[in-house]
Amino acid sequence: MIIDSHCHLDNEKLQPRIKEIIDNAEKSNVKFMLTICTNNESFKKIINILEIYQNIFGTYGIHPHEANDYKDISADIIAKQLLKNKKIIGVGESGLDFYYNHSEASIQKKVFLKHIEACQATSKPLIVHSRNAEKDTLEILSSEKKNKNFDVLMHCFTGSKEFAHSLIDIDCYFSASGVITFKKSTELAQTFKSIPNDKILVETDAPYLSPEPLRGKINVPSNIVHTVKFISILKETTDKDVEKFTTNNFQQLFKINIG
Questions:
Q1: Where does the chain have alpha helices with state H?
Q2: Core vs surface per residue 141-162: b (16+ CB within 10 A) or e
């Protein structure tokens, strides 16, 4: 069994054929998916998806690109949204993106901290987006974990080995996306090779980041099998072993038992 720990089933490229996508995922042994919120409109669609499809879980959070429009959001508002459906199991995606800078850095940090506060209040894991922001992301997570511990999943991790091991030191999990399969991602592959198996999950980030050999096409959860295969070769083990430890890690992190 494979769990896609991060996809965007509410996205306009996927939603019109969502039943077909979920059925195809099932045929590829992708039994469960976590569809990730980016703003309030996204969340409305996710709630509808969760009510229709039993094997889909969701999150609530504001993507750093959207932070300017949610600069007054509070931890209480985030925490209340998490109660809208029992299958809302995480907070995010939130974090820092200084590559595109669609929102001001100071506002991104403020909104990120509100998500962390909600995690600390609800004990739901935080799904972190970090791009070109290693120093600030690490400083914020390290500091806030000292105040009150909370669980962290680094979504679509593409950072340096040094960043990864600093995050391991504060007990973070890491999600491998299709990026790890790209021909120019040799350093990233070696970084994941050095990350303990009990800290690794897999994701598609669908409809984005299709793995090799499907790079450039619209991504869907069933494509995650290529990422699993890549990690099995990287870790010198079997596909089944990767499926097992990534599924166990998902259940451990999100505190659920789905068999």
A1: 18-27, 40-52, 75-81, 105-122, 134-147, 161-169, 186-194, 224-234, 239-254
A2: beebbeeeebbbbbbbbbbeee
Q: How far is CA 80 from CA 19, 46, 85, 114, in A?
A: 29, 15, 10, 13
The 3-state secondary structure of 49-62 reads HHHHCCCEEEEECC
| Angle subtended by helix axes 224-234 and 186-194, to nearest 10 | 70
| Contacts of the segment 192-195: beta carbons below 8 A, 24+ positions apart | 192/157, 192/231, 192/234, 193/234, 193/235, 194/161, 194/164, 194/165, 195/164, 195/168
Cis geometry, peptide bond prior to residue 221 (ω within 30 degrees of 0): no
Region for 39 from its dihedrals, namely left if φ exceeds 0, alpha if ψ lies in -120 to 50, beta otherwise: beta
List the Cα angle 36/245/51 in 5-degree steps: 30
Largest CA distance in the chain: 48
| Closest among 188, 247, 236 to 5, alpha carbons compared | 247
Angle at 199 between CA 196 and CA 202, to 5 degrees: 110
pLDDT one-digit tens code per residue, 47-92? 999 999 999 999 999 999 999 999 999 999 999 999 999 999 999 9
Would you state the structure tokens that stand for residue 138, as one six-digit string? 């690490």
